[in-house]
Write a structure and sequence with these properties.
mainly beta, 7-stranded antiparallel beta sheet, 0% helix
Length: 127
């Protein structure tokens, strides 16, 4: 059975009036002796909003995964961010893959998604 470090979270009301919720999963590793390989992961997440401005919502999640073995290390880092306006949601993502310390793959993307129902977007899009 894998016993992982405890997930921790916090909630703070900042001086700016922004509510900030954070979550952290500390580095967790499991080693498989038969194949002499260790798998590890770590996660950070932050969600914020100004309660008087619903379109100020923002969410960011970063995840690190790693595999260590005698031949070297492979790692993947991914990050996703969501923000919003009265008209749309904005999604941004990034992924990086490295092997033995060398970046072998990287991709970033953004996508804007119009809100279906808002005071600004009043056209019905669903049938």
């Amino acid at each position: 059975m894998l016993k992982a470090p405890r997930l921790t979270g916090s909630c703070h009301m900042l001086r700016s009036g922004e509510l900030l919720l954070t979550w952290y999963q500390p580095l967790t590793s499991v080693h498989f002796k038969d194949i002499d390989t260790t798998f590890s992961f770590e996660t950070n997440a932050a969600h914020s909003i100004r309660p008087t401005e619903t379109n100020s919502a923002r969410s960011v999640c970063t995840r690190h995964k790693r595999m260590d073995r005698p031949g070297g290390r492979a790692a993947v880092t991914s990050r996703a961010q969501t923000t919003s306006t009265a008209q749309s949601f904005q999604l941004n993502g990034q992924i990086e893959v490295s092997q033995a310390g060398d970046m072998i793959f990287e991709r970033c993307w953004s996508r804007k998604i119009d809100r279906l129902y808002s005071q600004v977007n009043t056209k019905r899009r669903c049938s």
